[in-house]
Amino acid sequence: MLKIAMAQMEVIPGHPDKNAATMLRMMDEARTEHVDVIIFPEMAIPGYLLGDTWEQTSFLADCEHYGQEIIAASEGITVMFGNIAMDWEKMNNDGRVRKYNAFFTAQDGKLIAPAGQDYPFVIKTLMPNYREFDDTRHFYSLQQLALEQGKNPADLIAPVTLTLQGKRYNAGCLLCEDGWSDNYALEPLQILQDKGRIDFFVNISASPYTLGKNNKRNRVFGQQAKEAGKPLFYVNAIGLQNNGKTVYTFDGASTAYNEKGQVCAMSEEYQEELTIVDMDELASMPALPDDKEPDIAHIYRALNYGVRRFLENIRMKKVVIGISGGIDSAVAAALYAKIVGPENLLLVNMPSVFNSATTKGLSKELADNLGCQYTVIPIQHSVDHTVEQLSTTPITYLTDGSEQNLTVSSFVTENIQARDRSARILAGAAAAFGGGFTCNANKAETTVGYSTLYGDQSGFLAALADLWKYQVYALAHYMNDEVYGREVVPQGIIDIVPSAELSSAQNVDEGKGDPIKYPYHDFLFRSFIERWQKAAPEDILEWYAAGTLEENLGCEPGLVAKYFPTAQEFIADLERWWNLFTGMAVAKRIQAPPILAVSRRAYGFDHREAQNGPYYTLKYQQLKEKLLS
């Protein structure tokens, strides 16, 4: 009986002392269960998303110190874990100390080096440099080391040989991306297989949650185990890490695959736990059933965990939400109520003359359903006062002494309403209540900047800003049906037309709402940001001309003809939103609150952008001319 423990721990980024303490506690727990090998995640000691903390040599020294503590504590148990490894005598290409993303194996107080290698640890071979990952900025890869030594990278990839219960085992040790080698010239797992007998593979990871990633990983890693005919243990962290503008949950879901590639054991998502597997019995264990949960269930868990941990990290216990009677603020309220409790949640309805009795009533109904704290603070008086001040206070041009007055347009008045709600009422209420106020923007609004700077775009966290509008509606249904088991988000809010209610042109009782046609624009905007090969106007126009637009976008058939009867209308709409997406919306996103990521591409550091303004390719302009002629 060879007992392997997958130690799915919460890794606290930037706190090696706390992480080492967690590891020592879990090692003690493993000993009481007579575990032979305990496996911790990648970068278990320092954390992974640390920004330029990696440039602090004092921090690196602490990581090394706590790593030595884990090594010293390995008496009577084999410990496999991720940490930063320094070669203090060498430099990275940036002139800073040499750093490796490393996989350590310790037994009886000593490190076990990969066969025939100079360093007593496995070095990460494949460095992700996309999405939120920035490995090449900080870490020296095995490929670079091979080049420096004049060797083939395969010469530096070797198994780690363990003696367990008097028997020798060759472990194929991989670090996260080393198992995702499809688009790389090197395949570390295949190289390990080619070098001789491997008894089992271990992939330690720091892999943020992304919708659908676990199913893909099970296909990829399951196939690897099946083709090798050997078990594979995948150990991932849980917790919350960030790179400033984008916040990521780490869901764990550590998994044991048998030699048939079947999932035989999996740790609970977002739970710190030891999952112990007898490797000798792995082949006979039944495969776990495939995940049948809807996507929205996974999204809810990620949001619930992410918001909860974010609030704990910033020590915020109370939350204020401005509610309008619309779907986004209602879903935010239902989400936060479950996390902080209704007694710590203050909902504020801030009507103007443009807010209907319908939405005011729905706001109260939502608050009643949640049983939280609630208040109504009208804004019309203060908005009128601001407009009057701006309109009647003279402006003096000091060069010639001439005076003029500002003209406050209806559009400016709309923005004044939004800023009055957030910058004045919500900010003040949050301070008085002893908490913070939320940003309730969804991803469609964030894409095109359909928000007001220092107004509804403000807040301490944008928890829903990586969800398209259709996902916000799905979340409302899921929370009603599964989380609360009753109607919390009123059906009237779900049914009403989405509207900012900032003018008479957005009268919900007359069916007037936002200019964004969400059933179509959700999918158009998604093509701008989430496609791996990002779509631009040229692609959209080509698909439109070929009659394949809806198929390529994934939206409902017939919407394009319904919304845009002519090519001229279609092109005008496309250019309107592209100009905003690549124009003012970029400036707004730069100033937006941190976004909690759930998709394959979230705004913030995940989608790196520059303020260069809109661009239309030559081919686009030619195709546009042809369609309009």
TrEMBL record:
Binding-site list for ATP: G322, I323, S324, G325, G326, I327, D328, S329
Homology family: In the C-terminal section; belongs to the NAD synthetase family. Belongs to the NAD synthetase family.
Pfam families: CN_hydrolase (PF00795), NAD_synthase (PF02540)
Residues where L-glutamine binds: Y130, S207, K213
Keyword Signal attached: no
Assigned EC number: 6.3.5.1
Described purpose of this protein according to its UniProt entry: Catalyzes the ATP-dependent amidation of deamido-NAD to form NAD. Uses L-glutamine as a nitrogen source.
Keywords from the UniProt entry: ATP-binding, Ligase, NAD, Nucleotide-binding
Binding site for deamido-NAD(+): N415, E445, K588
Pathway participation: Cofactor biosynthesis; NAD(+) biosynthesis; NAD(+) from deamido-NAD(+) (L-Gln route): step 1/1
GO cellular component labels: cytoplasm
Domain CN hydrolase: from-to ranges: 2-281
Protein name: Glutamine-dependent NAD(+) synthetase
Positions of the catalytic residues: E42 (proton acceptor), K124 (for glutaminase activity), C176 (nucleophile)
Catalyzed chemical reaction(s): deamido-NAD(+) + L-glutamine + ATP + H2O = L-glutamate + AMP + diphosphate + NAD(+) + H(+)
One GO process term, biological-process aspect: NAD+ biosynthetic process
GO MF annotation, one: ATP binding
Superkingdom of source: Bacteria
UniProt key word ATP-binding: yes
